[in-house]
Amino acid sequence: MCGIFGCVLKNGDVANVIHSSLKRLEYRGYDSVGEATLDKGVLFVKKDVGKIDEVHATHDLDALPGKIGIGHTRWATHGAPTKLNAHPHTDCEDQIAVVHNGIIENFSVLKKELEDSGHVFKSRTDTEVIAHLVEQKMREGQTLRDSVLEAVKRLEGSYAIAVISAKEPDKIVCARRESPLTLGVGENGVYFASDIPAFLPLTNKAVIVENGELVVLSETEYTIWKISDLKPVIREPKTIDWTPEMAEKQGYPYFMLKEIMEQPLALRNTLRLQEHYLELMSTFLDRAGQLFLVACGTSYHACLAASYIFSKLAFHVTTPVIASEFTEQQGKSVNIDSTMLAVSQSGETADTLAAVETARQRAATIMGLTNTIGSTLTRVSRVYIGQQSGPEIGVAATKTFTAQLCVLSQLALRLAKMRGKISQDEIDFLEARVIRIPDTVETILKTQEEKIKDLAKKYKNKTCFFFLGRGISYATALEGRLKLMEIACVPAISFPAGESKHGPISLVEPGFPVIFVCAKDETRKTLIGNIMEMKARGATIIAICEEDDDEIKCLADDFIEVPKEIPEVLSPIPYIVPLQMFAFHMALERGLDPDKPRNLAKSVTVR
Ligand code: F6R
């Protein structure tokens, strides 16, 4: 996601400090960069699309004057990566500048209200509303601090913001809700940043800003208040003894673990998708004659799960296809009535883009679901949705898989609504459950990690695993198997549990480990039959099941629990989490680095 940094210095120019600190936030991923400084009551801004070095080469980011300033690396969510959409954003009179990390959910309503009262917008971002809201309050005679306070009270969504104004050129006002914000207190000034690594070489004295807090930074001090009632908060700096490398991973030893653990937050961001994107895409889906869901690897598993969800909720038949097979398998059947929903975290996977090209040449409608706004997939799609998971650095997809499932389930629900295929009660129930999914995932992460570590110790020397499930859980099993293979380098086989007796069961001998994904759904009876078949041949059963599922627990040798009453169509999201964790700990037990799987690249741009 976006990175923010800024500071008020006692001595020296701020621009080169911002420049080098933004470089230390590059690992977060970004497409544009910008800085704003204040000097002698004048606001200066430089920003553009591109990497920091490229923007610096054309604009000389260090040439901005002044001792106070803010900077930003943007990772596009609202509005394409363009110069105008890059931060900082300013008000109508270029007196106020804002940087923001997060998503303002109600920005369209606020923008309309501000435009109606005469404000002129320059960008298509959600962030710009903040500059105009602050401007509005300052015009009414309020201070910068109180104007920011009033502005953030009107915001829905997530934010870490920093605001400067030419009218009060000695301070920066910051506020936080959900998105991370940290202060650094140094000899030569006070800093704020999305992440500690940004200021670590300047100071190791850090103050974490909590949710719902407002901060004013001056060159010698920081003051914190609660946004709700302006009560002052006293918080002393803590000494950080992280190495810069640890700091990038927010204290986690591996990116993969960090990304597994941040799934609740990432899912909450995904749930903030603008209603009209979902509405628009489901309208296209509704019109689709033949609907192909196309992707590779983990993203394909999300498509496979989605094919069950679309069928069960919207009675809509879809064809999930592995992208590298699309042209051979389906190419000739594509026509003007066909629609392809291509799913790609990176938006750059060559096989997926080749399938898109085949479909485009045959006049199909292309839609995209991606984590990378501005990627090739967003450019070739008639409609696309950005899943808002934030950059994924671990090679193995984790948080982006659960987010893909979250978007696809919401689309299926919209379509079900449009088509009147399931009752309003059921829709209301599922919508409420979708909102609770981040909490469910959080519970699993908090309660199951120790047990999963023990299981990894117990099974680390096994040479082959089966991953089995029925119905939608087959997609979960496939993804669990892929994680184990790619990260822990353990051969594993996955197939629908019902297929065992048609061949693969011949591999089973006493002690052979079989992981069953046991979502509580209509497949239960037959799944129990499949567990019995395996047990009868001496297999060791590891079940992922609901916490109150005593029947499965009695049959299993080991089990990992997920919270109870998870609706079948949402089950892949919580059920995959223990399997991601299992793969991660198996890799560690086997002496492998989960962030550097052998022979793999994050984005596969060759065919
Ligand atoms: C597995 C993994 C890969 C990707 C696949 C598609 O953990 O990350 O299987 O899912 O290469 O990548 P995207 O989604 O970027 O098209």
Quick overview:
The protein is α/β, with parallel strands linked by helices and 607 residues long. The protein is built from 19 helices and 25 strands. The strands form 4 sheets. The chain has an 8-stranded antiparallel beta sheet with strand order 3-2-4-1-10-9-11-15, with helices on one face. Strands 5-6-7-8-12-13-14 form a 7-stranded antiparallel beta sheet.
Instruction: Give the beta-strand count.
Output: 25
Overall geometry comes to: globular
Q: Helix share of residues?
A: 25-40%
Whole-angstrom Rg: 25 Å
Low-confidence stretches: none
For the biggest sheet, the summary is: 8 strands, antiparallel
Structural class: alpha/beta
Q: Numbering strands along the chain, what is their spatial order in the largest sheet?
A: 3-2-4-1-10-9-11-15
Describe this protein's structure.
- The chain is an alpha/beta fold and about 600 residues long.
- The protein is about 40% helix and about 25% strand.
- It has 19 helices and 25 strands.
- An eight-stranded antiparallel β-sheet has the order 3-2-4-1-10-9-11-15, with helices on one face. Strands 5-6-7-8-12-13-14 form a seven-stranded antiparallel β-sheet. It has a five-stranded parallel β-sheet with strand order 17-16-18-19-20, with helices on both faces.
- Strand 18, helix 12 and strand 19 form a beta-alpha-beta unit.
- Helix 3 (about 105-115) crosses helix 4 (about 130-140), helix 4 (about 130-140) packs across helix 5 and helix 14 packs antiparallel against helix 15 (about 425-460).
- The chain is globular.
- The mean pLDDT is about 95.
- The structure holds fructose -6-phosphate (F6R).
- Fructose -6-phosphate binds near residues 297, 299, 349, 396 and 604.
